[in-house]
């Protein structure tokens, strides 16, 4: 959905449906014209994310930052595909997570970036891309 | 004033219906013809629609909802997609919170009946281009409701739903004592506008600075949610919220002061193509523990707004609810105070 690519951080305020299956549910329930446009955007943004796969160390660091921000108990399950919103992250938590990631990796995440960061994996993939872009530029 | 209502088991007879649409149709037609089916929605006392410049603010405290039976009733009114999302959440409190949020939206909207009772389960939702949930009115066949706008916000300890007619609405609630993991000024430097950073920098006391930060955060969140664009499409640096000192101790005088310049304003930092003078804010302190910000669009044909000196206050009706069980109208007292914006806590119908 167009909304997926546009709202990098703001999934929590809008109680966004988080899984692929759920997104499919939403696709069928909207009017035709709107969903056609948004379906294309979803495909392309997902492709962009998949084009840069993060290193396992990056994923691990992201997990650590998320755990710390959300004060997750050590035994709680956190996988790369776990949605932040399902962990109880609200909008302020999410922005704090982004800030933590920026400081850890020395990058800047633009708010209006087209990537959708709603899971650890997506955050890690974006970080990897931004770090690559940064070192390519310097 | 508390209104108690009791739901019965008759609603479960509809569980086996094949399609949601058929069920909604039957429910609507059933009640329109006056047949005496007792359903879940019959235990939601109907409420008058908000008028212009009126906001209805409903909230539920998760700690007050303990009954498993009740939680199951809430689960029953959700759509299959919503149920699926809730089942994916592992942690119990988070699951409950997500469930209460969906149930609050559906039951709240269902109260605004005109001709026929509305089954909370029959609402369909869609998202705007930026992901903001809205009611899909096109799928509402027999209803004759004017388009209601709603917005929800939740913290672990309070879940709220704001409703308005004729204006988009954004709300945000936050615990007053919420701690940031990052340093407040460092966070503000990164995300807030220069004026807001300056405001926060000038507050020496860390507790007061935190409180001011939370107030600004909720106001900014409410604004971008009212805009319908969310954080990523309206970066927080691109607009400034100014929160002037509210008239403390002059609550009674406010009743006589109708025309007054609003003490919460928002202005764009850079982008002059989107004038922000049409947005109005209310900032509340709830139960001494939460800040709640509400943002609606100012009525452009309101004669009061053309005076240049200010506008009529917003009437805000505050209700604490346990859907299907009880609703409590909260009036201005120690547990609910307007601390910013031109608004008054109205008496419920």
UniProtKB/TrEMBL annotation, chain A:
Record domain Carrier: where: 56-131
Alphabetized InterPro entries for the sequence: ACP (IPR003231), ACP-like_sf (IPR036736), ACP_chloroplastic (IPR044813), PKS_PP-bd (IPR020806), PP-bd_ACP (IPR009081), Ppantetheine_attach_site (IPR006162)
Pfam families for the chain: PP-binding
Coiled coil: none
Keywords: Chloroplast, Fatty acid biosynthesis, Fatty acid metabolism, Lipid biosynthesis, Lipid metabolism, Phosphopantetheine, Phosphoprotein, Plastid, Transit peptide
One Gene Ontology term from the biological process aspect of the record: fatty acid biosynthetic process
Predominant localisation class: plastid
Protein task: Carrier of the growing fatty acid chain in fatty acid biosynthesis.
Family: Belongs to the acyl carrier protein (ACP) family.
Name listed for the protein in its UniProt record: Acyl carrier protein
UniProtKB/TrEMBL annotation, chain B:
A single MF term (Gene Ontology): holo-[acyl-carrier-protein] synthase activity
Pfam families per record: AASDHPPT_N, ACPS
Keywords: Transferase
Annotated 4'-phosphopantetheinyl transferase N-terminal domain residues: 71-159
InterPro entries assigned: 4-PPantetheinyl_Trfase_dom (IPR008278), 4-PPantetheinyl_Trfase_dom_sf (IPR037143), AASDHPPT_N (IPR055066), P-Pant_transferase_sf (IPR050559)
Keyword Transferase appears in the UniProt entry: yes
Descriptive protein name: holo-[acyl-carrier-protein] synthase
Entry EC number(s): 2.7.8.7
Transmembrane recorded as keyword: no
Residue span, 4'-phosphopantetheinyl transferase domain: 168-252
SUPFAM superfamilies found in the cross-reference section: 4'-phosphopantetheinyl transferase
């Amino acid at each position: 959905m167009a909304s997926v690519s546009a709202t990098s951080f703001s999934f929590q305020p809008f109680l966004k449906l988080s899984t692929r299956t759920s997104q499919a549910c939403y696709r069928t329930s909207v009017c035709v014209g709107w969903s056609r446009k948004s379906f294309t955007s979803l495909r392309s943004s997902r492709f962009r994310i998949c084009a840069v796969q993060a290193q396992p160390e990056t994923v691990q660091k992201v997990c650590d930052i998320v755990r710390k921000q959300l004060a997750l108990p050590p035994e709680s399950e956190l996988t790369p595909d776990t949605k932040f919103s399902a962990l109880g992250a609200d909008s302020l938590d999410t922005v704090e997570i982004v800030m933590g990631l920026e400081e850890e990796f020395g990058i800047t995440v633009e708010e209006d970036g087209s990537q959708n960061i709603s899971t650890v994996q997506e955050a890690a993939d974006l970080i990897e891309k931004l770090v690559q872009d940064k070192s390519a530029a310097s | 004033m508390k209104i108690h209502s009791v739901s019965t088991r008759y609603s479960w007879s509809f569980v086996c219906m094949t399609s949601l649409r058929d069920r909604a149709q039957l429910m609507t037609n059933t009640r329109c013809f006056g047949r005496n089916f007792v359903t879940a929605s019959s235990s939601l006392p109907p409420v008058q629609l908000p008028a212009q410049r009126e906001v209805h603010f409903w909230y539920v405290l998760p700690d007050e909802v303990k009954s498993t039976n009740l939680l199951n009733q809430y689960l029953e009114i959700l759509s299959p997609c919503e149920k699926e999302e809730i089942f994916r959440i592992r942690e119990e409190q988070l699951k409950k919170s997500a469930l209460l949020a969906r149930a609050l939206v559906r039951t709240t909207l269902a109260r605004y009946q005109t001709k026929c009772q509305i089954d909370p389960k029959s609402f369909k939702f869609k998202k705007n281009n930026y992901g903001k949930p809205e009611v899909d009115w096109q799928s509402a066949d027999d209803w004759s409701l004017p388009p209601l706008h709603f917005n929800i916000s939740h913290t672990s300890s309070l879940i709220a739903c704001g409703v308005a007619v004729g204006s988009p609405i954004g709300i945000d609630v936050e615990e007053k004592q919420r701690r940031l993991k990052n340093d407040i000024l460092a966070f503000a430097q990164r995300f807030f506008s220069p004026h807001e950073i300056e405001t926060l920098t000038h507050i020496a006391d860390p507790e007061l600075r935190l409180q001011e930060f939370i107030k600004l955060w909720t106001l900014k969140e409410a604004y971008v949610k009212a805009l319908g664009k969310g954080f990523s499409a309206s970066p927080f640096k691109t607009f400034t919220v100014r929160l002037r000192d509210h008239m403390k101790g002059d609550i009674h005088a406010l009743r006589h002061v109708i025309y007054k310049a609003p003490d919460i304003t928002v202005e764009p930092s850079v982008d002059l193509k989107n004038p922000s003078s049409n947005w109005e804010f209310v900032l509340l302190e709830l139960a001494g523990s939460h800040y709640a910000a509400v943002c609606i669009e100012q009525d452009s044909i309101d004669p009061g707004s053309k005076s240049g000196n200010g506008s009529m206050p917003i009437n805000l009706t505050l209700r604490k609810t346990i859907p299907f069980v009880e609703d409590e109208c909260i009036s201005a007292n120690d547990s609910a105070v307007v601390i910013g914006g031109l608004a008054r806590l109205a008496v419920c119908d």
